[in-house]
Specification:
With about 100 residues, the chain is mainly alpha-helical. It has 5 helices and no strands.
């Protein structure tokens, strides 16, 4: 992982720490993405999402706040349900049918 990718990852951790993304944080995210190839940004985003899924299922119980956080991450980062691990898609499909899918 490049230093820029690591910085982007750190920013994601900070932004989603309180489960609320403020306008200033969105601006920081846009600025951080600007210096990276789109493929690298997408890889960091997907890894972050997968890691958050892993945290959510660590105790074998997915809570409402964990579902909400996963949905917020997908939405804020411009990802889709298809970017979630298959198990997560199945666990969350009824709760997040409004999220976009990628064909």
């Amino acid at each position: 992982m490049s230093q820029s990718s690591a910085e982007l990852r750190g920013l994601l951790e900070r932004i989603f720490e309180d489960s609320f993304v403020e306008p200033k944080e969105r601006d920081e995210l846009v600025a951080a993405k600007a210096g990276l190839p789109e493929s690298e940004v997408l890889a960091v985003f997907k890894k972050f999402l997968n890691d958050k899924w892993g945290e959510a299922i660590a105790d074998d119980v997915i809570t409402g706040p964990e579902r909400a956080l996963l949905a917020r991450i997908v939405s804020e980062l411009g990802l889709s349900m298809a970017d979630l691990p298959h198990q997560a898609q199945m666990a969350l499909r009824d709760h997040f049918s409004r999220l976009p899918t990628r064909g």
